[in-house]
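Bumping my old thread because nobody answered last time. Still need a sequence for this structure:
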């Protein structure tokens, strides 16, 4: 294949070694850019296996267990080395922390920032503290050098404008993306449950999230306790790992939800599609800073609808499809009311076919050309 653009993609962690929305997006983007005649080389945090498994396309500039200053030093050295070796037309930064050490080098190239979320603000929410001035400075330094910034939703565009003082004309909204074929499940709900060993005779909800504060999982447990009054057999399948896992398990026990929730831990990709399909619907109960939520598109691609809170970019995904599947607010009462209405049939459940048709708008085949156009504009 003949490439007419060369990009250096500076990421965070490498997806197969660390799961997360940013990491999955970066991993998939690297795979799909060649369809737009864009050649890419990447730098990430990871093991020596990264370079081997990608035929030297992506290198690990540092391992995750190294001290921060060492990682930052390695990021600068590796970025400078790869710029000299590869001579990219464009540098793309996916995480400001690792772009910051080489910010002077980035100023000499066309620069696009993929804004996956306000790092300083996210950390503050997780830790219950004020926003870190240092993290905010690092972010703002990198963002202001960018020719173009790509955000996942209008909600995140507003954050860049208001909080980081980035001119609106430098920001482009391009949704997150998935490989819909990967999630195209042809079997029915009951068969999927049988394959996973899930009960086949209970109303079942699925949630896959990092188990952390802003995901709204505490509110979901409280809502589940309320829903159980009308639907005593309600079952929540909760997948994911995180720093509040033990706290959530303790809360569930104290609420008497032991028979209404199963903590699945990490669910591998091979079973994730089945898990979506096995559920009556998926729930995304976020309370803040949800830029897109890839799980919404993933679930819809399997044919399973998604109930979301009106937070960040979530309403932008669901509203054109069915606004009734957005709770009135992110509180436990609103979540419980919506779940009850869906299970009782007051809110109609869309067909699997309509969910899958709608999810196609978020396929990488649709999204990658939009990213390519922004890259070309930044270079020009």
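Sorry it took so long. Here it is:
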């Amino acid at each position: 294949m003949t490439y007419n653009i060369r990009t250096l993609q500076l990421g965070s962690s490498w997806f197969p070694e660390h799961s997360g929305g940013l990491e999955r997006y970066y991993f998939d983007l690297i795979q799909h850019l060649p369809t737009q005649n864009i050649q890419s080389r990447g730098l990430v945090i990871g093991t020596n296996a990264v370079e081997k498994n990608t035929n030297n396309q992506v290198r690990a500039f540092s391992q995750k267990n190294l001290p921060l200053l060492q990682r930052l030093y390695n990021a600068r050295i590796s970025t400078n080395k790869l710029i000299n070796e590869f001579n990219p037309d464009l540098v793309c930064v996916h995480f400001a922390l690792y772009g910051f050490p080489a910010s002077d080098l980035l100023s000499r190239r066309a620069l696009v920032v993929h804004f996956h979320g306000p790092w300083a603000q996210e950390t503050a929410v997780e830790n219950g503290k004020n926003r870190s001035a240092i993290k905010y400075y690092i972010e703002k330094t990198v963002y202001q050098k960018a020719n173009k910034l790509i955000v996942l939703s209008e909600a995140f565009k507003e954050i860049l404008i208001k909080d980081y003082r980035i001119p609106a004309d430098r920001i482009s909204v391009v949704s997150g993306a998935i490989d819909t074929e990967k999630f195209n499940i042809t079997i029915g709900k009951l068969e999927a449950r049988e394959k996973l060993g899930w009960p086949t005779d209970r109303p079942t909800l699925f949630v896959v999230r990092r188990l952390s504060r802003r995901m709204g999982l505490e509110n979901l447990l409280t809502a589940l306790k309320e829903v159980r009054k009308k639907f005593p057999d309600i079952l929540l399948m909760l997948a994911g790992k995180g720093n509040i896992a033990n706290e959530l398990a303790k809360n569930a026990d104290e609420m008497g939800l032991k028979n209404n929730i199963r903590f699945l831990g990490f669910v591998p990709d091979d079973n994730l599609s089945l898990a979506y399909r096995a559920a009556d619907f998926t729930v995304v109960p976020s309370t803040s800073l949800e830029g897109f939520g890839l799980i919404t598109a993933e679930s819809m691609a399997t044919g399973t609808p998604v109930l979301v809170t009106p937070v960040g970019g979530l309403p932008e995904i669901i509203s054109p499809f069915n606004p009734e599947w957005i709770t009135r607010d992110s509180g436990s009462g609103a979540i419980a009311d919506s779940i009850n209405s869906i299970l009782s049939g007051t809110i109609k459940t869309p067909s699997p076919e309509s969910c899958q048709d709608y999810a196609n708008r978020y396929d990488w085949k649709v999204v990658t050309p939009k990213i390519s156009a922004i890259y070309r504009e930044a270079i020009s």
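Residues 180-361 form a domain with the Rossmann fold fold (CATH 3.40.50.2000). Let me know if any region looks off to you.
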